[in-house]
Amino acid sequence: MIIQQFKSHIEELFGHLLKDFKENDEYGYCNFTTAHYKKLGCATNITPEIVLQAAEKNVDLIVTHHDAWDFVYGMKERCVELLKEHNIAHFYIHLPLDYAEFGTCNSLLRLLGASNIIQQSHHVEGQSTIGIGEFGTSIMIEELVGVMENLLGERVYFQRNNNKVIRRIGMITGAGNGTNQLREALNRNCDVYITGEKTLYTVQYARFINMNLIIGSHTFTEIFGVRSLAHKVQEKFQNVVVIQLNEEHHETME
């Protein structure tokens, strides 16, 4: 797979979402050359540790959800240095992957067992609306917590704020900690709201409105969308090997 083929496939997969976020640095390419890319490593985040791990595993293309954040001062520059040093290309795609049909929210909803996607997360007035999925059969929140912990491989935080069984899930993977998103889950008759970050306001408002709440980590609520993207690349270019790069559970709730 060469860069032109990869770019064309990304355009096919994301369509108008690339145009919608073209000016916002929500996706990008780094250190691509005329090389043939044969081994793809996927992760939620790009960090110096991820680049070095990719080099050890002979990965020549890293695909992530996040670019290195500018406010983690100096890390982006160090990642670029290491990518160049080890001749590794990097592609990241943020909001378009959040809103894609196969993206972060829908991937986790389906893996949790939601058989019906009622609403896909999308972008409205600078904010993410929630994704909504439904189970075929209702379950208890404790059972859902167990399923989520097994998927994420980490402890999650939860509040049982009412006695409902769980049928309808409202979700934003990653930083869906806004009270407006909890309010949307309430207004759409969700039985639980799931996200990847919390603040004082998240837990206060969930309790105030009696909304059941489950919170995993930002990294591991979003990895499944990156994995879905990597597998779609592999479906198109069957000679490409895909591996998931290992990220630490820095954000685990205790």
From TrEMBL:
Checking Pfam families in the record gives: DUF34_NIF3
Gene3D superfamilies linked to this entry: NIF3 (NGG1p interacting factor 3)-like
The alphabetical list of record keywords is: Metal-binding
What family does the database annotate? Belongs to the GTP cyclohydrolase I type 2/NIF3 family.
Task: State what protein this is by name.
Answer: GTP cyclohydrolase 1 type 2 homolog
What is the organism of origin for this protein?
Paenibacillus polygoni
